[in-house]
Amino acid sequence: QVQLVESGGGLVQAGGSLRLSCAASGRTLSSYVMGWFRQAPGKEREFVAGISRSGASDLYADSVKGRFTISRDNVKNTVYLQINSLKPEDTAVYYCAASRTAAIMAGKAAYAFWGQGTQVTVSS
Fold first, then answer.
1. Cα 112–chain centre separation
2. Phi-psi category of 26—alpha, beta or left, where left has phi over 0 and alpha has psi -120 to 50?
3. 10 Å Cβ neighbour count for 29?
4. What DSSP line would sit under 70-109, residue for residue?
5. Helix, strand or coil for residue 29?
């Protein structure tokens, strides 16, 4: 079992950047495919980005391609989400999640472990 703790959220102006971190404990992060999801008020939790166990492959939602970058440091047991060119519609609680699947999955059901989330608010 792995425990996940997100950090790095905050209030930023449109066009700004943030780097979210997800620190893992309890088990080595390299055992898991990792994903970032977000949930805006009144909306379903949606997939944002995922990264393979080695970090060699990644996957992005169309809405964030070119602006978000997922990465991982398996030595530090941490996953990151670099968010650039922020838009007001990026406002949401961002969650990291760990999956035991072999491939990167966009569906929430594939992820067994979740962090508590970090709030990102983008002002226009």
1. 14
2. left
3. 23
4. EEEETTTTEEEEEE-S--GGG-EEEEEEEE--SS---SGG
5. helix
